[in-house]
Amino acid sequence: MGLGRMLIVEDDPDTSYMLQIYFQSQDYEVAVAQRGEDALEMCRQELPHFIMLDIMLPDMDGYDVCRELRSHLRTRHIPIICLSQKDAREDKIHGLEMGATDYITKPFDLQELKLRVRNTLQQAQYRNLTNPVTGLPSSQLVEEQLVSLLFHSQDWVLLYIGINHIEPFNAVHGPLAVEMALRFTATTLTLTMNSVGRPDDFVGHIGLNEFIIITDKDLVESITKELNQRFDAGVRNLYDWETQQQGYLVVPGGAGNETKVDLMSLSIGAVTADDGPFADVRKIVEAATEARRKSRFCSSITSEHESQ
Asked: If pLDDT is split at 50, 70 and 90, which confidence band does 153 have?
């Protein structure tokens, strides 16, 4: 994954190409959008760790893109550096008022831009705002959302989601493959919530293979159904062809022994305000952990060797 996923929103092809090539050479994963609406859609598909946003776009003002990202819970944490030829003080202030993390005028110095990007990402990670692999909200932002549940209405539900059998997957395929699995899971959660959730539902990454969704309890059934369907449909692509065909993972052991292990699946626990009252966040997390352990909602994927 390198240093992180960067989204460059720039309609000038020469500038966007130059930035893309430069930051790829700095070990960033770079995507490019030439229109504001395209950038918003790309963020809905997969969260970037960082956005470089031109103010002058053909379809919408960059300030409006920034405001739209900041208006939704799932994207408001993403660091944004605005790029603009407008160097007036009021333009910079307006960009910062719209939620930009930083504002740089064109023409810019690439070395300075590189350092500003690096420092911005380091600050976000230092403050535990985002997970470095998935880009999803992490420790501090997750805790803020959990605290808010203590004072929220009675309609919320916390879905506590874990990935089953990721340890043997790691043993066979290694840590880079695990990062791919985590990113696939994060994308699956994001796409599911875009499809059947609400704009201000919260998706977070709280541990190595643990995620949460905070939403309305009336949406539990539709979310868990689609989440499992999407995960089960795509998870096989993380395995080699032979494993896909046989439907289980063969894990080598000592003395030539082998163990057949199910493919990765999800276990999902659900906790609502009705399961309380909860005195503090720790009690909510404990209840959610127990609910997931009981697999109140779980993936429907079944390995072939189990059915034989």
From this structure: low
